[in-house]
Design a protein that fits this description.
With 387 residues, this protein is an alpha/beta fold. It has 13 helices and 14 strands. The strands form three sheets. It has a seven-stranded mixed beta sheet, with helices on both faces. The chain is globular and about 75 Å long.
Length: 387
């Protein structure tokens, strides 16, 4: 961040208008982001979790309906499902890309499936043609969780525009940030209308006879957040290009390392690297993944072995169904199959988490940072291979 963000913040403060119902910053952000993405509608919200909640509310599940999602995801993508009285039904993942696939999704589709939520993990696109073909055949809505994939593309199409709704996060660790913030895009006018209402307590601003039409929170983005996001949006292309360049340098540096593989990206796709994932074959390194991670950290290279460590369904809120008081709602409405987390159903998930090591990166890494990390990784692999 720099003078651009400070200038826009100052302009908002001097205007005296901080709420987006009367200001112009958030409206401008929505318009510019929609144009950038090639979408007809954009709704801004207070954070990325709010964006996903808004998308799920637009789909409007009945209590007990199922939302298919990934087993490797943040809780911010799961709690909105539960708050809308729906059941998260976890699909397994490809152990090399860490993403759900049409094959893993099809295994858990049922007559109660209301939507499919695909997460493009780390910025690596899911194989969307197959997923959309399946969803359209079943008349099921698709929500793209794009929190980690600003600027990514699938076969020349921008992620977030392929499904029915695309959701983005402006949390501090993302490609661009306003501290917190969310953006939902869609080309479906009905979904767009419901999303706009949902972030505004379902109050019909501008309607001839407005009212609170249905149950909804206040998830509006404020003008201060919108100002920062507007300034950041101008830097997005630069930041994405820098991350892609860093990843390309690491791809080359790690290409021939024994026991370590760069991210697998399908041909024709553009990965934009929220994080950089290495696949580690523990059988090739003395001490395996844990020894590798420990030595990297000792040499000043932060890393996250196993990423989130355990599948999302092993988190206490899901595992013990700790929701509203002692009610366990909405899990009380779930089919047994939807809450069966048997290990054998998630072979890809457990393999993915057992083999992934995540390196952070950001657009401010210098050439020295990039080369330094590469040298430490290569030297550590050599030591653990020959030791």
């Amino acid at each position: 961040m720099g003078d651009e963000e400070i200038l826009k913040l100052s302009q908002v403060i001097e205007s005296g208008t901080l709420t987006s119902t009367k200001g112009e910053c958030v409206k401008s952000l929505e318009k510019k982001f929609a144009q950038l993405m090639g979408a007809t509608h954009c709704t801004a919200s207070s954070h990325g979790t709010a964006a996903l909640h808004t998308a799920i509310a637009a789909v409007d599940p009945e209590p007990g309906d199922e939302i298919i999602t990934t087993s490797i995801t943040d809780m911010g993508a799961l709690t909105p499902i539960l708050y809308q009285s729906a059941i998260p039904f976890f699909a397994d993942v490809d152990p090399y890309t860490y993403n759900v696939t049409a094959e893993t999704i099809e295994k858990v589709i049922s007559p109660r499936t209301k939507a499919i939520m695909v997460t493009h993990l780390f910025g690596n696109p899911c194989q969307m043609n197959e997923i959309m073909e399946l969803a359209r055949a079943k008349n099921i809505a698709v929500i793209e969780d794009c929190a980690q994939c600003f600027g990514a593309e699938y076969q020349g199409q921008k992620l977030g525009t392929i499904g029915d709704i695309g959701c983005f996060s402006l949390q501090q660790g993302k490609h661009i940030t306003a501290g917190e913030g969310g953006l939902c895009i869609s080309n479906n006018a009905d979904y767009a209308r419901r999303m706009y209402l949902f972030v505004n307590k379902a109050w019909g601003y501008g309607d001839p006879n407005p009212d609170h039409y249905f149950l909804a929170p206040n998830y509006r983005m404020n003008e201060l957040t919108g100002a920062v996001a507007l300034a950041q949006l101008e830097k997005l292309d630069e930041f994405v290009a820098r991350r892609v360049a860093i990843a390309a340098a690491w791809d080359e540096a790690f290409q021939d390392l024994p026991g370590v593989s760069p991210p697998r990206v399908h041909p024709g796709n553009k990965h934009t690297y929220w994080k950089y994932s290495l696949r580690v074959d523990s059988s090739k390194l003395n001490g395996g993944l844990d020894a590798f991670a420990k030595r990297l950290k000792e040499q000043g290279v932060f890393c996250a072995p196993r990423y989130i460590v355990k599948p999302a369904f092993e988190c206490q809120v899901i595992r013990d169904q700790r929701t509203f008081g002692e009610s366990r709602f909405p899990f009380t409405l779930a089919r047994p199959e939807a809450v069966d987390y048997s290990r054998e159903k998630y072979a890809g998930t457990y393999e993915a988490l057992a083999t992934v090591l995540v390196l952070p990166l950001n657009e401010r890494y210098t050439a020295a940072h990039v080369e330094g990390v590469a040298n430490v990784v290569r030297r550590t692999v050599e030591e653990l291979t020959n030791g």
